[in-house]
Write a structure and sequence with these properties.
Elements lengths: L6 H4 L3 H12 L10 E4 L5 H9 L5 E5 L2 H11 L4 E5 L11 E7 L8 H10 L1 E12 L5 H10 L5 H4 L11 H8 L3 E15 L4 H7 L4 H4 L4 H18 L8 E14 L1
Parallel strand pairs: 1-2, 1-4, 2-3, 4-5
Antiparallel strand pairs: 5-7, 6-7
Helix pairs in contact: 2-3, 6-11, 9-11
The structure holds S-adenosylmethionine.
S-adenosylmethionine (SAM) binds next to helix 2.
Length: 259
């Protein structure tokens, strides 16, 4: 699937986007020695948090997007953290990892049944696999994406492009990981981000969920598509009494300690 990420657009809501990653990091009692990898590291701000939390360990950030990696290198340098271009779907560690971490990236990879146990296999005994994925198929912003993409104007061009699907549920993740793990902890959190701005959910989604569609449209088509989506998503998220917009996001967290 083609995706063109713009790190500056993505980072517009950095504090809100990082919150689930920080919530996950605080739950990881990492004691076993060894390296850390951040899969789908994006612009590297969360990878930097991993390095701050465990400064003595080698940390690698892996991402498919050269633009995201360039931003990460520019912001955080190349010495303390190594940045690698790679696809989570096929990424293979050179050595087993104490922590394989991924925040808001694994939903871009579809075959979790193969990928998740493969990642668990790359963890050192007593190490951790920790990831967070949004669960948003039914959310208003996804409904608006589907309505736009499937409308008469865009269906021919875009209906075949990737469409977000919810990940498997906690019970299925549990069964997938328990053969590899001494413990599997899974929880779901609802975030209600109080966003400022005229159409802030649009501004948020332009930096993430729309990237597969924007990458296959011409500049003129992009403008038209964004206008269409912007109008729909603005109606779906009315403002609160104080003028802010509540952006509801459900996210699943999975934390497995290797046997
Ligand atoms: C929503 S951003 C999350 C970035 C970062 N983890 C964070 O928490 O801010 C998703 C990132 O996953 C990357 N990505 C998507 N599919 C990927 C794949 N198959 N392999 C590696 N990275 C991928 C994108 O390039 C993007 O940087």
């Amino acid at each position: 699937m083609s995706q063109t990420w713009n790190p500056d657009v993505y980072l517009r809501y950095e504090s809100y986007r990082s919150r689930p990653a920080l919530d996950l990091i605080t739950q990881i009692p990492l004691e076993v020695a060894g390296p850390i990898v951040d899969l789908g590291c994006g612009p590297g701000n969360v990878t930097r948090r991993l390095k701050d939390q465990w400064p003595d360990r080698p940390v690698i950030g892996v991402d498919l997007s050269s633009d995201m990696l360039a931003k990460a290198r520019g912001e955080y340098g190349n010495t303390e953290i190594q940045w690698q271009q790679g696809d989570i779907e096929t990424w293979q560690a050179n050595e087993r990892q104490a922590l394989i971490f991924s925040n808001a990236a694994l939903h871009w990879v579809t075959n979790h049944v193969d990928v998740v146990p493969r990642l668990a296999e790359m963890v050192i005994p007593n190490g951790w696999l920790a990831f967070q994925i949004p669960v948003t198929e039914q959310s208003a912003y996804q409904v608006c994406i589907r309505e736009t993409v499937q409308s008469d104007r865009w269906a021919d061009q875009l209906a075949h492009v990737w469409m977000y699907k919810d990940p498997m549920g906690p019970d299925a993740f549990y069964d997938l990981l328990s053969p590899h793990s001494q413990s599997v902890d899974i929880w779901v959190t609802d975030y209600n981000h109080a966003l400022e701005g005229d159409n802030p959910v649009f501004d948020w989604i332009v930096g993430t969920g729309l990237t597969p569609y924007l990458s296959v449209l011409s500049e003129t088509e992009k403008e038209e598509f964004l206008e269409d989506y912007s109008a729909r998503v603005s109606c779906a998220y009315p403002k609160q009494a104080n003028g802010k917009t509540l952006f509801f996001m459900k996210r699943i967290f999975v934390l497995a300690q290797k046997r």
